[in-house]
Amino acid sequence: MKWLPKFLIVFLLVPLSISITGCQRTENPLGRKTTHVFSPSYLHKQADAAYADEKKKNPQSANVVQQALVQRVGQRLIAIAKRDYPQHCQGFNWEVNLFEKPKIVNAYCMPGGKIAFYTGILPICRNEAGVAAVMGHEICHALLRHGSERVTRSMVVNALVIGAAIGLGSSKMQENNRKAVMAAIGLGSQVGLILPFSRNHESEADRMGLELMAKAGYEPAEAPEIWVRMSKQSGGQAPPEFLSTHPSNQSRIAELISLQPGAQAHYKVAPNKYGKGEDMRF
Predict the structure, then answer these.
(1) Nearest to 152 by CA among 36, 16, 44
(2) At what angle do helices 128-143 and 222-234 cross, to 10 degrees?
(3) SS3 of residue 108 by DSSP
(4) Beta-carbon neighbour count of residue 231 at 10 Å?
């Protein structure tokens, strides 16, 4: 066990060096303290380039009705984001596009406000309120700077693993034991650090996104229905929650239902009410 002190020193000092040099401490819109390695402007620039590439590779949906619906919902949500979170929208160059990808059930909002919807998620959304629930969730990932946090956390975890490898490599531990320790560290970093962090991000975006859609005038009761439909489509097949980057569908449904009183209060005072809005046309 003579290798242990040196191994621990490397294991701890490598991520510490990252945290000391250049990290920014800030507070997200929900009041949680966060740490970031990269500036918003840097990530916005990277996201803009990636989004431009996305537009070159993927065709826009030719369905005029669906395009108009997604654009309409996007502009209403963006207006509320600008009104209520002006500080966190700084540097955002908003853009909304619906891409013709019927087999991809996905949507995202990049750092800096570039929003993509794939047509494959529209049957799950079903109506404007469903689109608002999904888009509000994705917009809030960007406002909460979750992508930046994940990059920072990944860098620290990678530094831990590299530090462990360096420490173990200089030790007299037998090769099979060294491999077993590295495998345990890798699994532990995923299950203990990365996955819970991601699930917390999803829960934060669910909570804030629900408020955003309600403030924009969309019926918040439609949000849990998204995950009911998602669960039915997947047939309930999903990894255990502790091995997933997302909360289980059932956890999300329960959480979104529990948040309804607050969301309904925002919906009640919204200046414009659209309810579920227009239904999708397929």
Answers:
(1) 36
(2) 90
(3) strand
(4) 17
Cα Rg, the chain, nearest whole Å: 21
Q: Do strands 95-99 and 114-118 pair parallel, antiparallel, or not at all (unpaired)?
A: parallel
Q: Which two tokens stand for residue 95?
A: 């853009």
Instruction: Tell me the sheet residues that pair with 140.
Output: none
138 is known as an active-site residue: yes
Residue count of the chain, please give it: 282
Spatial separation of the C-alpha atoms in residues 185 and 160, rounded to whole Å: 9
pLDDT in tens, 145-196: 988 888 777 665 565 555 555 554 555 555 655 455 444 444 443 444 444 5
* pTM as predicted: 0.77
Catalytic position from the list 138, 149, 202, 204: 138
Measured distance CA(207)–CA(146) in Å, rounded: 14
Contacts of 162 (CB under 8 A, 6+ apart): 14
For 19-40, the pLDDT digits (tens) are 444 567 788 998 999 888 888 9
* Strand pairing class (24-27; 33-36): antiparallel
Q: pLDDT (tens digit, 9 = 90+) per residue, 65-118?
A: 999 999 999 999 999 999 999 999 999 999 999 999 999 999 999 999 999 999
